[in-house]
Amino acid sequence: MVRALAVIGIAALAVLLAVLPAAIALRRLTPTFGWVGAALGCLGAAMVGVKLIAMAWAMGARLWGARPAGGAVAAVD
Question: What is the pTM of this model?
Answer without folding.
Answer: 0.46
